[in-house]
Design brief:
Layout: E1 3-8, E2 16-19, E3 31-36, E4 39-46, E5 67-68, H1 76-88, H2 93-101, E6 112-118, H3 128-137, E7 141-142, H4 144-151, H5 155-163, E8 167-173, H6 192-207, E9 211-217, H7 223-236, E10 240-244, H8 251-262, E11 267-269, H9 275-287, E12 292-295, E13 307-313, H10 330-341, E14 344-349, H11 354-361, E15 366-370, E16 381-386, H12 400-411, E17 415-419, E18 428-431, E19 448-450, E20 455-457, E21 464-465, E22 480-483, H13 487-497, E23 503-506, H14 514-525, E24 531-534, E25 547-552, H15 566-578, E26 589-594, H16 600-607, H17 610-624, E27 630-639, H18 642-654, E28 662-675, E29 678-688, H19 693-702, E30 711-716
Parallel strand pairs: 9-14, 9-15, 10-12, 10-13, 11-12, 13-14, 16-26, 17-24, 17-25, 23-24, 25-26
Antiparallel strand pairs: 1-2, 1-4, 3-4, 3-5, 6-7, 6-8, 18-22, 19-20, 20-21, 27-29, 27-30, 28-29
Helix pairs in contact: 1-2, 1-10, 3-4, 4-5, 6-7, 15-16
Bound molecules: adenosine-5'-diphosphate and zinc ion.
Enzyme class: isomerase
GO molecular function, one term: hydrolase activity
Cofactor: Zn(2+)
Length: about 725
């Protein structure tokens, strides 16, 4: 090849052609360095027929490629996925490519990673914990966190061993392979139902052909144990597995269970990695040395050399939908990757999305069910507390029935969890005198009081302000009042009611790293916490056998002002948090505080009749022509210039093509009419399933011009509609 088409890592650019200098070998997928003006950019060689160029350049005007990276070429399967993602989500291909190359930090940077290993020296003070740690670590090497996970001790124990000279840091070369997990290390004895489910997955992994599965099992039924068998099958076949988790805080319990089952850790991929670690993981993924990878959604685009299985755990979670940059849905894109790689994809959930259930009904996804909890544990009873009949005392948020239940739980030495999906102390602060409300200057949002750190904070743009002493409007003193509860306020109420019960607040403010999550899990397991007050961060994944009571502080929160997905989202959230109760031998109880006991979603939760709830919701979607029956796309027009944003939104609205079975609503102010100082308008495109909406939108927007200050982003299959 003397001429190569290259997709550069710059989303503003289309593909460009270069000359391949004599002696340089490139093929489609090769990762290269190319000149652009005075700069050098990383890019990937593409088949010209897959990546049309809009400017054909004559051979004599081509510039030379500068170098080829010493890394495997991106496989055709991954290149097809990148093209599909760019097409489907109307994103620049280079922006998708960036996720595969992890910008280009995966290619550049240091040559070693700092790890730790035992020196063989026995410390003077050999506590049983230290002895256990040294024995389990053996001749392994890894990060402090990883050694702690393998040894089943805290990070502090490993650090202590470092101080004592029993463990030392070493520089590890980037191409050092990760220790492979052992499929036969400690397989569990599966129940009959679990065996049936696992067999189905194992057969699919062995067959190595595309098949999406919905692993639909109640909370605590052993979904993880079952898909571990699929991973074991992939390991035996010498193929890689990828497990996507919705939340990096959840990787912690996952890693521990994985290490217990397979004797080694999987390779973790998330935003907390240092550059050298990222680079080592990327290389191991590309070479095939990383046998099992667990990560957040971005791990989906990595260049696996021989992927054999993808698992999306908690597949209903909204965090699989990326909301900025390339607005893709990792669950749906995972299924597409499975299709290009021709491998099985397992979507695991106790509360599958209506879209996923619909795929099962259409026969496209195969459903595998685990209807019962493991070990005879019962699903907890869910009861509604009618806040109109059984109200909390004035200025309080917990109804007497719930307070009694907490008391009984504490008396039995068991643990309770209170769920409220609101960070901070209070969602709104206002002045009692003049009614002034504290609003974010950059966003259509109230500033949230965080009392623990004594700050007001905008949860949308991150703005942080000191709470003032006086009302900035009327200058009244001591006139500011907090309205409504956040988790910190509930924690205060709990402290007043049960002063001796140790509490923990679990939100992204307190659990912001895997190490923090590990600390929380350890304290729960040691029974050092009696009452957890948490946001959606505590609703999933955790398994605490002594946790027997769950209280949902405000079930109405997600229902008000809601879109078509509001009831489904509320159902999933409450069913998931309820699923934290009674997972061991002790039965669990759940109380749901609401003003709307008769709302269908509350009734469904109380009666346990998920099927008729789903049926009714699905029917409502069908009638509205909403997804999964119709297609939606949101066009968000934003600018710091209010006039420019409005005019562009109107222009887009006026030029909407007239197509049968396609309707365009708006423009209207977007749900956040102002965000980070940008004025936002939204148009909603609603069409029949069979219409190629992307094509229509591409042509439509492609024919228009707008000022440079305006950004137009398309959200295909938006999460809220
Ligand atoms: P899910 O993912 O469906 O919520 P888990 O896989 O977390 O369920 O299982 C719940 C608990 O039951 C976990 O502690 C798990 O280790 C345990 N468990 C499930 N199946 C088995 C089994 N066959 N043998 C031993 N423990 C099991
Ligand atoms: Zn803001």
């Amino acid at each position: 090849m003397s001429r190569a088409r290259v997709l550069l890592l710059n989303p503003a650019l289309g593909p460009l052609d270069y000359r391949v200098p004599r002696g340089m070998e490139v093929e489609p997928g090769s990762i290269v360095v190319a000149p652009l003006g005075p700069r050098q950019l990383t890019g990937v060689v593409w088949e010209p027929e897959h990546m049309p160029s809009d400017a054909e350049v004559g051979d004599n005007r081509l510039r030379n490629l500068l170098a080829v990276y010493d890394a495997p070429a991106l496989k055709a399967e991954l290149r097809r996925l990148i093209e599909w993602t760019a097409n489907y989500y109307l994103a620049p291909p280079a922006a998708v490519l960036r996720m595969a190359l992890s910008s280009s930090s995966a290619l550049e940077g240091g040559r070693t990673v700092l790890e730790y290993r035992a020196t063989g020296l026995v410390p003077d003070r050999l506590t049983p914990q230290r002895a256990q740690a040294l024995e389990r670590i053996g001749d392994r090497q890894g990060l402090i966190r990883e050694l702690a996970l393998i040894a089943g001790v805290s990070d502090a124990v490993i650090r202590g061993l470092c101080k004592a000279g029993a463990i030392e840091p070493i520089e590890v070369a980037l191409d050092t392979p990760f220790a492979p997990p052992d499929p036969d290390h400690a397989p569990p004895e599966l129940t009959e139902e679990q065996v049936a489910a696992a067999d189905r997955f194992v057969a699919a992994v062995e067959a190595k052909s595309f098949q999406p599965f919905l692993l639909d099992g109640v909370t605590g039924s052993g979904k993880t144990e079952v898909y571990f068998e699929a991973i074991a099958a992939a390991l035996r076949a010498g193929r890689q597995s990828l497990v996507l988790l919705p939340e990096i805080a959840l990787t912690e319990p996952f890693l521990r269970r994985f290490a217990a089952r397979f004797g080694e850790l999987p390779v973790a991929w998330h935003s907390g990695l240092r550059q050298s670690q990222r680079r080592r993981a990327w290389r191991a993924i590309a070479s095939g040395d990383a046998k099992v990878v667990v990560g957040a959604r971005s791990a989906l685009f990595l260049p696996y050399s021989n992927l054999g299985l993808i698992v999306v755990d908690e597949a209903h979670e909204s965090s699989f939908k990326q909301e900025d940059g390339v607005q893709y849905h990792a669950r749906d894109t995972a299924v597409m990757r499975g299709r290009f790689e021709d491998i099985p994809v397992i979507l695991a959930s106790a509360t599958p999305a209506i879209e996923t259930r619909h795929q099962v009904e259409l026969g496209r996804y195969e459903e595998v069910k685990l209807p019962a909890r493991f070990g005879g544990a019962q699903l907890p009873d869910i009861a509604a507390i009618d806040l109109l009949q059984d109200p909390p005392p004035r200025g309080h948020w917990l109804a007497p029935t719930l307070v009694n239940a907490i008391e009984e739980t504490l008396e039995r030495g068991e643990q309770a969890l209170l769920f409220l999906n609101r960070r901070g102390y209070a969602p709104l602060t206002l002045c009692r005198h003049c009614g002034h409300r504290f609003q974010c200057p950059n966003c259509t949002a109230w500033l949230v009081e965080h009392r623990l750190i004594h700050r007001l904070q905008c949860h949308h743009c991150g703005l942080i302000a000191k709470p003032p002493e006086l009302c900035p409007e009327c200058k009244a003193e001591d006139s500011l009042v907090a309205c409504g509860p956040g988790v910190e306020r509930i924690a205060d109420e709990v402290a007043a009611l049960f002063p001796d019960a140790p509490r923990a607040i679990v939100t992204s403010d307190t659990i912001w790293s895997p190490a923090k999550a590990a600390e929380f899990v350890a304290r729960m397991e040691a029974n050092e916490i009696s009452i957890v007050i948490g946001t959606q961060l505590v609703t999933k994944g955790y398994h605490f056998p002594n946790l027997t009571l769950v209280g949902v502080v405000d079930a109405d929160l997600g229902l008000s002002g809601g879109d078509l997905r509001a009831a489904e989202r509320t159902f999933q959230q409450i069913a998931q948090v309820a699923g934290r109760a009674g997972r061991g031998t002790k039965p669990g109880r759940v109380f749901v505080q609401t003003h709307e006991v008769n709302a269908p979603v509350i009734q469904a939760l109380v009666s346990g009749d998920a099927e008729s709830f789903y049926a009714a919701e699905t029917e409502a979607r069908l009638e509205a022509g909403a997804p999964p029956f119709g297609r939606m796309a949101a066009i968000i027009v934003s600018s710091e210039n209010a006039q420019a944003a409005l005019e562009t939104a109107r222009l887009i609205g006026k030029t909407a093509p007239h197509i049968e079975d396609m309707h365009v609503f708006g423009p209207a102010p977007a749900p956040l009419a102002m965000l980070r100082g940008r004025h936002r308008h939204r148009l909603l495109v609603h069409a029949r399933r069979s219409l190629d909406v992307q094509d229509v939108i591409r042509d439509w927007l492609g024919s228009l011009d707008w000022p440079n200050s305006v950004r137009v982003a398309v959200d295909v299959d938006p999460y809220s509609f």
